[in-house]
Structure formats: structure tokens, C-alpha cells
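_Per-residue structure_
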Amino acid sequence: MNLNMIYKVKWDLILEIAIRLILWWLFVWIEYSEPFIREIHESEVWQYQYPVTDSYVTARDLWLLITLTPSVFFIIEYILSKKKDDVIAGSLAVTLAYSLNGLVTTYFKAIVGRPRPDFFFRCFPDGKGDDYTGCVGNRRKYLDGRKSFPSGHSSFSFACMGFMSLYIARKVNLFQGTKKGHSWQLCVVLLPILIAATVAVSRTCDYHHHYEDVIAGSLIGAVISYLAFSLYFPKNIDTVASE
């Protein structure tokens, strides 16, 4: 590799990292900003009077899932194949997907300001009150209670598992070429989607999100994972080098 190529690789990588840092900073900044205070009509209060419960899948569980799953997969692949091109491309794709997904999801949470199903009891822990602009509960909890749409758990789980499904499909040559596939290939490819769907549905079971929130979040994560994957793994290209 000549000197010009070395510098090109260096600055391309710096740009890739810088873009992700900017996206992540925007994500965190919006995440801690106050949401739009949407007016709540008396006729819709019933949608927000579900009990406050612990998350079936906590934020820590989610981050462990989306961090460890691709990391372990890439490490095993590198140990077995000793090829770094796909591992580098995959790492760039999945980190871009997370950064974009985080920004898009939290942006819509803040500007939509839809109350969660348990918002009433976040706002009035004793169950008494009707002025939803004058909540008496924990400020951070009741403001977060206005960030229901879309579901972050759903979008992040599909951003991760959608990518893993596409990546595995590529590795087992599913839907590629002219040869017919095998049932085990389809089962393996669908497994990550099942995991993502389970995380998403759990958010309605613990009353942290409405069904519309989960559907929207899942679509956001799935679309972003597909776009990020397609960026680094173009069709008809066997390997993507890190030039």
C-alpha cells in the first residue's frame, strides 16, 4: 500500500468515526431535552391510566443485547476465517445504524410528545389529579412519560437484529445466486427477527408503550439497518474492503 493510499484510509476512517460521534452527541442531547407537552383530552385519559411496572427488558438488558450480539459474532467470524474486511465493514454498518437510529428515534420522541400508557400514574403517583401540566411525581419520570412514540427498545432491537439477519443471510448465501436454499438457512436468518420482535412486544406487556409506538419503532430500526447494511455491503459484491 503506497503512502497516498495509507493517508486515504486514515482520513476516511477519521471521517467515519467523526460522523458517528456527531450523530451520537445529537442523540444524547435530544434524549435529555424536554419533550413537546401535548394536550391531553378527558376522552383519551383512559389510554394513559395503566399501572407503572418494571420493564420486562430493561435498558441495560437492551444495550447488552445490541452490543454483545454483533461483537461476539464478529470476533468468532474473525477467529474462524482470519478475514477482517467483512468484520470492519460490518462494524461500520452496525455502528452507523445505531447512531442514526438513536437520533431519529429520540427526535420523534421529543417532537411528538405522546404520553405513555402509564403516564397518569407517573404524573400523579397517588392517582389523584387532572392538570397534566402540573405533575407532582418525579420530574424525570413524568417527562420521560411523554416520550412514548416511537419505541426506542423496538427501534434499537430491530436496528441490531435486522442487521444481523441480513448479515447472516449473506453468510449462508440465502436469496443469493440461482441455487435453491434450505430450511435451516431461513430459520437461522429469522431467529434475530424473532428476538427483536419479542423485545418490541414486551414494551406493550409492561405498559411502557402503545402498539403504534412499537410498530413505528420497529419499522424505523428495520429500515435504518437495511440502509446501513446496503451501504457497506452492496449487492453483487462478495467482500467489502476497507480501502
Remarks:
- The longest helix spans residues 3-31.
